[in-house]
Design brief:
Elements lengths: L7 H26 L9 E2 L5 H4 L3 E2 L18 H4 L3 E10 L9 E6 L3 E9 L9 E8 L6 E7 L5 E5 L4 E7 L2 E9 L2 E12 L7 E11 L3
Parallel strand pairs: 1-2
Antiparallel strand pairs: 3-12, 4-5, 5-6, 6-9, 7-8, 7-10, 10-11, 11-12
Length: 217
């Protein structure tokens, strides 16, 4: 029996079928490889080494204090955040018709101590009106530039020589701000004074806040 050769049309049809099937196979392989990828980028679990995470998405942490967050090792924080911060807070009772000894509530790095005193502004016995005196002592060894602002009052801008203290009184409950500059380094102190127990037999002053230090660029 003599076999007939396929016609040219049949050859074209078979070739097209083979090419189509090959393309489908390649597409299936590529789909499997990129399943779950976003914009073609695969993900690595939190904890992966930096060289393995390069060019890939990083999963958030599954447990611990950082649950749901990206581990800091994958974030270039030093380029975004510079400087240091600190917090302070202290509750002070007031003496009827008297004042307490100044108490240190915190420090301003590189500048000096921040202290507070709670005193009674009401001369009537048994009826207290607590007011808070905030004091910043410059022990840096050189003159600093200081801006002070209490709530919506006008700002006070002065030079503060070394060895000199700067103090101000806050009555009632009000926020305050100190902006200190020394050799290009800027320190921001943001605080709040709360007056508790006005016109009562017992009262107190609460002072709390934070300081941020931004070194020269």
């Amino acid at each position: 029996m003599k076999l007939k050769l396929p016609s040219p049309a049949m050859v074209v049809a078979i070739t097209a079928l083979i090419v189509a099937l090959s393309g489908t196979a390649v597409a299936a392989v590529n789909f499997a490889r990129n399943a779950g990828a976003v914009d073609g980028k695969s993900a690595v679990a939190s904890g992966a080494k930096l060289e393995h995470a390069a060019g890939k998405l990083v999963a958030t942490q599954r447990s611990g204090a950082g649950k749901g967050r990206i581990d800091a090792r994958y974030l270039d924080l030093p380029e975004l955040v510079r400087g240091s911060s600190a917090t302070f807070g202290r509750a002070l009772s007031v003496v009827d018709n008297g004042a307490l000894v100044p108490v240190q509530i915190g420090t301003v790095p590189g500048i000096g101590a921040l202290t507070a005193t709670c005193r009674d502004e009401n001369g009537a016995a048994g009826r207290l009106d607590p007011a808070t005196t905030i004091t910043l002592a410059n022990t840096s060894g050189e003159t600093i530039n200081l801006m002070r602002k209490v709530d919506t009052d006008s700002a006070t801008v002065v030079p503060l020589p070394s060895g000199v203290i700067h103090e101000f009184v806050i009555s009632a409950s009000r926020p305050f701000t100190l902006h200190i500059e020394r050799r290009g380094s800027n320190t921001l102190v943001q605080g709040v004074v709360r007056q508790d127990g006005r016109n009562e037999p017992s009262a107190s002053c609460l002072v709390y806040g934070f300081s941020l230090v931004a070194p020269p660029a």
